[in-house]
Every structure is written in C-alpha cells, then in structure tokens.
Structure prediction request, 327 residues.
Amino acid sequence: MAVVTLHRFIIEEERRHPEATGDFTSILYDVAFAATLISRAVNKAGLIDILGATGEENVHGERVQKLDEYANKVIFDSLDHGGHLCLMASEESEQPIPIPEQFPKGDYVLLYDPLDGSSNIDANVSIGTIFSVHRRRDQQTGDGALSDLLQPGVDQVAAGYVLYGSSTMLVYTTGAGVHGFTLDNSIGAFLLSHPRIEIPDPGKRIYSVNEAYSERWSDGQKALVDRLKKEGKFSLRYIGSLVADFHRTLLYGGLFMYPADAESPKGKLRLQYEVSPLSMVCEQAGGAATDGRKPILDVVPSELHERVPCYMGNKEYVELANECISG
Ligand code: P6P
Prediction:
C-alpha cells in the first residue's frame, strides 16, 4: 500500500467533496501539527521537568498538570493565526477563546480538550486530545459568538482525537467514515494506518465503567451491569483515561459508560469537547452513542462546559443500555 500521509489523505478527501473549501483542510492539518508537538512533550515527559502539577487549578477546580498547560497553549498557538476560525473553546478555559485581533477570522469554531486523562500522566498511562469542529451558525464575518460553540453534535463538520500511547494515533471523521493515522516520529508525519475504521460487530463482550461508584447508580444502571455480567458474560476493562477507553471500544467493540449517579446527576464527562466528538466518531464507525435515552448528537447544549451521561459502543449494547436506563 502506498504511504499515504495525513496531508495527502485530507487533500484527496477534499477533492472528493467539491463543496469543501481549503479552510477545513488547513484546520485538520494544524490540529495534526499541534498533536506532533504534544506527542513529543508527552513522550519526553519523564525526561524533562514537565511532570507534576503546576499547583494551580483549572476552571473545574482540578489540579493543572504542566503538560495540560503546554498542550492547551500549543493547540491555541497552532490554530489562532490561520484565518479559518472565528472562536475557540477549551476544557482549560472557562470562557470562549477569541482569535487575536491581528489575525483574520474564518467560518469555523474549534472546541477541544487539550490533554484528557492528564491525572494519569505521571503513571505513563495513555492520554489524549479530543477536538470538535463546527461551522459558525451565521454567515457573519468577524469574531464568533458563544452560540457558535453551543451547537448540537449532529452539526459537527469534523471530530476526532489523538491518543498518546505506545504510538501516537490521530483518528478523525468528517462524516465520510473514520480514519486512523499513526505518527512516524522519524519523519514527523502521520501515516494512514487504519483506513475506514468500523467497530467490530459483534463486538467483544467488554464493558467499561468505573464500578467503584455502583452504590450511587440508578436501579437501571445496576440492572444493566448485572445483565452484562450475568447474561452477557462480559469482561470489565477500565483505564480511567477516556480516549484510551474509547479507542479500545472503537477497535475491539464493547460498551463504554460514564453514567449519571446520585452524586453526579449528569455524569462527569463534558458534552461539547469530549462526548459529542467521540459520539460522531462512534456513529461514523457503525456504533451508537446515547445519554441513556437519546443520541448524544441530538443533545442541544445550553452551557459550554456542561456534562452529559454517556453510553458509547456497539449498537446492540447501547440499545440494551437505553432499555435499562430509560426503563
Ligand atoms: P473516574 C480523566 O480524569 C477523565 O476526565 C477521563 O479521561 C476519564 O474517562 C474519567 O475522567 C475517569 O473518571 O471518575 O472514573 O476517575
């Protein structure tokens, strides 16, 4: 198979969609560039004094790891000047992030979690970047508005993630299937390694949830996990790093859950820059993603950092979850 770089693949995808503008290609390419810089930092984290918390807290009161800060800045710096975005939003910033005045504004907005799972950094567990791209709602020019960031997942024009693990992989979709690229560090390029990823069907009988919280679960959630264990003979795999748990579910099949519970009525994971982009990837790979009742992609956000319960994986398993959760 010819060596297909991410750049070549994106250009060829663009040619297949005459309506596509170069804008979009550049955004994906700039995200990939940021990912190569973050990958280098993550892989050297043990060598450079970049480990350990800065001691500060992010908008959610979580300890900010230095790598988090670095990743957040690298993504902003890689995308603030291209002229394709009119606004950004990051898990690390309470408010939307405007494009600096000196740079032209474009027709898209980017939402991202720069380094999810960062609490696992010191243990060398795989962590990830998650990103979501929307077209701005109105045909205005100039700065974007909060409303451009509060669009339902069904309106995403692209979504994906980068997994910094034994190798660095970028997985994305623009609505025409899911494609995976592996970073060749010797040339600093992402090469097509997983064309058209489809979730295996039937999927492996793996459920992925933090079962330590089971006492806080609803009766429906408890019934679901009981059925998976007793009737389904499922195994449990849970890394506690969203991108790693999701990526395994995408490649092997199974059911990833972060449910609501008595202490977290909407679960923990964030809709706009974690669950919504992963749900687009999951659906594009032939899987399903719901909040236990309806498709995640149909959830209309009201706040930038809102949380949502989620069930992502094989359609069959997600449908069972819906049956148990919605009663
Ligand atoms: P819990 C990591 O902190 C994270 O944000 C996700 O990467 C992961 O899926 C989740 O939290 C784990 O949360 O409550 O199981 O420790």
In short: DSSP finds eight helices and 14 strands in the chain.
